[in-house]
Amino acid sequence: MTKKFEASLSEKSAKAQKLPVSVRAYAPGSAGAVLIILFFSALLLYLGFLYLSAVTASTALLVIPFLALTDKFVFDGRRLFRTGLLPKLWFRLNGLRPSVKLRNIEQIDTAIVGTFKRGGRVRFMHRTTVFGNAPPIVFAGSGHRFREMSEALFSRVDPRVLDARSLELAKFSTTPREALRIAADLKIPASDVLEGSLRNNSVLKSAAANGLDPRLSEISQAEMLRNAANKLCASGFLVRAYEAFRRALHLQPGNPGLLFEFSRCMHLLAFVRRNKRFERRAAAALRLAERRADGDTELLERIAETYRQFGYSRRAAAAYHTVIETIGDAFRSLVGLAELALDEGKLAHVVHNFSAANRIATTAAQRRWTNAEADYFARLSEDDEYMELEISRLNLLEKLDRWRRIALRLALYSLPLIAAGTAFDDALVADAGWLVSSTGFLTWAGMNIGIKMLSSRIPYDLVANEK
Predict the structure, then answer these.
(1) Which H or E element spans position 210?
(2) What pLDDT was estimated at residue 266?
(3) In terms of domains, do 186 and 318 share one?
(4) Which of 27, 213, 304, 318 is deepest in the core (most CB within 10 A)?
């Protein structure tokens, strides 16, 4: 499986678009800044400061959008860097690295943060976080810009740093038009036609009915359907992908990799439709894939990762232990066990597994990351004062986040008071609305700054020097 996957990535990298590629930085703070500045511009106008109101409104409508539009992440084939003026200034003031090279990337995680339904297609909003020896790089999107960036970046990094979702995008990402062409070639009906078939297991059994060459072997036919199903799934055509997977499984019912990919497709369907039945079926397909993996350690690691994503921590741990028992120490399995131990608060196990992963790491980035994690959790375990400080920091972060949400709600819920006071010429109601809303927005902005300042771990040297 590893050789096939690496060959697929190499082929995709060779066909990749011209570099450099860019995507806008994931900066939700820009929208918040525009909202707050416009609000205070209106407040200045209400108070009679016309000139200041015009200046602040111009800043909100012209300067902030310009800064946001020019704030991009660019990948030139060797490194990933940010072009925004404010981020560059922030990096320089804090002595941070403005870019990360490919060899220094430690992890790439991709999550689905939103869905948009359009006809038979689900459009996913992805958010990718790149971890390395620089501040985390976060970019998001759902269109061709995100696809170009993910294809160019994911196809050039070590596949072992990619999580399951990033791997799927690396291998199967394609344009919606190409996915529809593939579906048409294989005679997979439209999503609305297939809706009824979701409740049963009937499939088209003949190769001719599937749009395949009957002269091909069943293995070749199943691989074509499997590839089509994954591309349809990555493009958001989930129902058609589900049908293609079922047809492939009719030809190869015992293929563990196919069962694994089918389970992830069903889990996406369950996520989009909030369907518990599909969740159960996805978990059942994943367990069947685990039973039939038959020593495929790479597949078992991905299955364990997906178990954790589905919320089955015990089964994830069992799969990771199976890998370790089969081939000895395995980097991804040890890291996975460390993350599971962290979920359960077992710091000694976290330290042990990160230390073991560090000993077998094959790249400088892996060694640096696992060593830093092992040192951090070892200090937490050994130094009660440091642990108390970190717990206090995390508790404060949680409180700030809660206060931030409350402040924002308070500010937004007070806006109707301003509108009502202005409409009915009631100065008392309008003044109360302005006061509460301005206090709420200022508190919200302050909480955001506090969260940003407290998001980093406390350096252990600061605690050690005070002793």
Answers:
(1) none
(2) 93
(3) yes
(4) 304
**Residues 121 and 246 occupy one common structural domain:** no
Radius of gyration of the chain (CA): 26
Q: Are residues 288 and 152 in the same domain?
A: no
Q: What is the dihedral of CA 318, 321, 323, 329, to 10 degrees?
A: 160
Whole-model pTM? 0.84
Tell me what pLDDT residue 159 has: 86
Strand order in the sheet with 21-24: 21-24, 72-75, 79-82, 99-101
Mean pLDDT confidence for 77-100: 84
Give the pLDDT confidence score for residue 121 in this predicted structure: 83
In a domain? residue 189: yes
Which whole-number Å values give the CA distances from 147 to 7, 150, 162, in the listed order?
A: 20, 5, 16
At 262, give phi and psi (nearest 5°).
-65, -40
* Total number of domains in the chain: 3
Rounded to whole angstroms, the Cα distance separating 246 from 233 reads 13
Collapsing DSSP to helix, strand or coil, 269 comes out as helix
At 16, is the secondary structure helix, strand, or coil? coil
Residue 220 to residue 248: CA distance in whole angstroms = 10
For 165, the token pair is: 């979702």
* Pair (93, 191) in one structural domain: no
Domain containing 199 — which CATH number? 1.25.40.10
The rounded distance, in Å, linking the Cα atoms of 416 and 283 is: 47
pLDDT of residue 14: 44
Model confidence at 5, pLDDT cuts 50, 70, 90, reads very low
Q: CA 222, CA 338: separation in Å to the nearest integer?
A: 37
- Asked if residue 270 lies in contact with residue 276, where contact means CB atoms within 8 angstroms, the answer is yes
